[in-house]
Amino acid sequence: MIDYHLHLWPHGQRDIDPTVEYLAQYLEKAQANGVVEIAVTEHLFRFSQTDKVLGDFFKRYPDTPMRTLMQDYWKDHARADLDRYVEVCLAAKAAGLPIVMGLEVDYYEGSMDKVTQLLADYPFDVLLGSIHWVGDWPFDHTTDPFVQGYWAELGVENAWEGYTRALEELAATSVVDVLAHPDLIKVTGMFPNTPNEFYDRIAEAARDCKMVAEVSSAGWRKPVGEAYPSPYLLSKFASNGVEITTASDAHSLGDVSFRFNDVASMVKGAGYDSVTAFSARQKRQISINVN
């Protein structure tokens, strides 16, 4: 197994200086759960270099309290040094630790060329693609009553449509390698009348754009109480020949490789016997094992 979605800093907390020793702690915890390789994938928006390129992204939306919330959220988080992050990841790899260097990249509509230019000079192994907001609405801020109140204003069907369309567009850019938590829109347990129609589109986008799909245990820690993707969507990935990674989306040491025996059983039950790992953005296969 692999844990291909790990963050160094919790949401809402200031970044700290990364060290090889800290990454080694992540690896030790993962290996205790049967993981043979991890990917460090901090959010792209957490870096000051990203702020210089994309810091005005949300100004395209109307001046509303939601836009202000997102601009403030961005300002609070975009402080880390991307060069330092890369330096430490490369040092860990040079020390022989089975760590690959990645990022989690959100969809910046109309600005993905800027993302490509920003990352071109860095030797990343894997890039995860995510949809964390629909327009300027950060739907996965599950503890914010103001944000969650927008479900009633937008409507569940429209929210799922906006999310699915954004994911399709992100996949089509080919900027990223993996679709992270591909049905994240379900995070609060809000489902449309016919979710399978959206799941079918997500699976087709992954297949047509040759994306790898992430199977993540993080949903078991969220209000929805279900892994990403749903059993139906995972079955559609399998029937469409979509390769997978496995992940915990940990933002602290305690959640590294969370419920990975359950993840292994889930993917094997869907017919997978290997997961896709990456090196220099190139795929390779690792057999699934159950600890």
Automatic annotation (TrEMBL):
Segments forming domain PHP: 23-212
Pathway(s) per entry: Amino-acid biosynthesis; L-histidine biosynthesis; L-histidine from 5-phospho-alpha-D-ribose 1-diphosphate: step 8/9
Record's keyword terms, sorted: Amino-acid biosynthesis, Histidine biosynthesis, Hydrolase
InterPro entries: Histidinol_P_phosphatase_HisJ, PHP_dom, Pol/histidinol_Pase-like
Catalytic activity annotation: L-histidinol phosphate + H2O = L-histidinol + phosphate
A Pfam cross-reference name: PHP
Cytoplasm among keywords: no
Domain of life: Bacteria
SUPFAM superfamilies for the chain: PHP domain-like
Listed GO CC annotations: cytoplasm
Signal peptide range: none
Enzyme class: hydrolase
E.C. code: 3.1.3.15
GO BP of this protein: L-histidine biosynthetic process
Tagged with keyword Amino-acid biosynthesis: yes
GO molecular function: histidinol-phosphatase activity
Similarity remark: Belongs to the PHP hydrolase family. HisK subfamily.
Protein name from the UniProt record: Histidinol-phosphatase
Naturally occurring in which organism (per UniProt): Acidithrix ferrooxidans
